[in-house]
């Protein structure tokens, strides 16, 4: 590319010889080409997709051929260089109907059906190594989670069952044992058992007290799967600088959502949040969360899963190094998953599975 640019005439030469104006899009095209090249080597690990729920309402679909009714399909993920997709098992209507456990199990079942119906495009994974295998086979790796902690129904046994079915991320917010006052005794046992199993803790939407205690207690990196910078946009799910700094110090990961509500209406706004998280928490603490098919509105030029190169091109123009971008898109998620796997293998040799329930530990 450098050789080609050296051969191009300067702007003064163009004006003198051809009488044509400068090309206002030259830098944009060059950065977009660089973005595609970088993503081909370091694809996107997307921290949150609402696709399973969106597909529930379609009578028929083909994700390998292409599906216009959703934001995410295999052709667009390949165009956007998506290598890993975290499939959310959250309940858009909320867990208040008392069916959180059943609904989460139903979504796990549907997720498996979708993947089995698209074997040429998708592959179910649990570990960082399986993600690499899926990528080498030309498949998009699908990692189950996050799920909402209400699905546990106050039982560590249900946590183990969900993990056995593939769950890798659990959102610790909105339960009696992970509320405004922080973790109860049972909540602390949940975090310890998640560490033992290799299930990652997600504190997006959790109270500051819960996030602080999880960061102090967890032996594995902590995720925020849908959190941007509160200093730039005062959304309740966004993180204040103090929490971002603590997350960075604990080697956790803040996955910035591509939603207009949390980050703003343009690619420029999203890039500003990524700049801020990198500057406050460090380049090893920032990731991406498309939040496609979740019902959220997305910034202009980031309407679906094919548009990641445009965001990376914007970051290149802002001076992000290729090393920083490789961590942002791929490396940080791989590090977090490998750390969780290593910690789980070590913990299972030291700690037997506990069987306490919330009613037993948290009763005065």
Keywords:
364 residues; TIM Barrel; 3-stranded parallel beta sheet; 16 helices; globular; Peptidase M19; Pept_M19; metallodipeptidase activity; Metal_Hydrolase
Structure notes:
By secondary structure, this protein is of the alpha/beta class. It has one domain (31-361): Metal-dependent hydrolases (TIM Barrel, Alpha-Beta Barrel). 47% of the residues lie in helices and 12% in strands. It is built from 16 helices and twelve strands. The strands form four sheets. It has a four-stranded parallel sheet with strand order 1-2-4-3, sandwiched between helices. Strand 10, helix 11 and strand 11 form a beta-alpha-beta unit. Helix 9 (185-197) packs across helix 15 (322-350) and helix 13 packs across helix 14 (308-317). The radius of gyration is 21 Å and the shape is globular. Mean pLDDT is 90; it is low at 1-21.
In short:
This protein is an alpha/beta fold and 364 residues long. It is built from 16 helices and twelve strands.
Write the layout of secondary structure elements.
Blueprint: H1 2-7, H2 11-17, H3 26-41, E1 44-49, H4 51-55, H5 74-79, E2 82-87, H6 100-117, E3 122-124, H7 128-136, E4 140-144, E5 147-148, H8 156-164, E6 169-171, E7 178-179, E8 182-183, H9 185-197, E9 200-202, H10 208-217, E10 223-224, H11 241-249, E11 253-257, H12 260-263, H13 267-281, E12 286-289, H14 308-317, H15 322-350, H16 358-361
Parallel strand pairs: 1-2, 2-4, 3-4, 5-6, 6-9, 10-11, 11-12
Antiparallel strand pairs: 7-8
Region (Disordered): 1-27
Protein name: Peptidase M19
GO molecular function, one term: metallodipeptidase activity
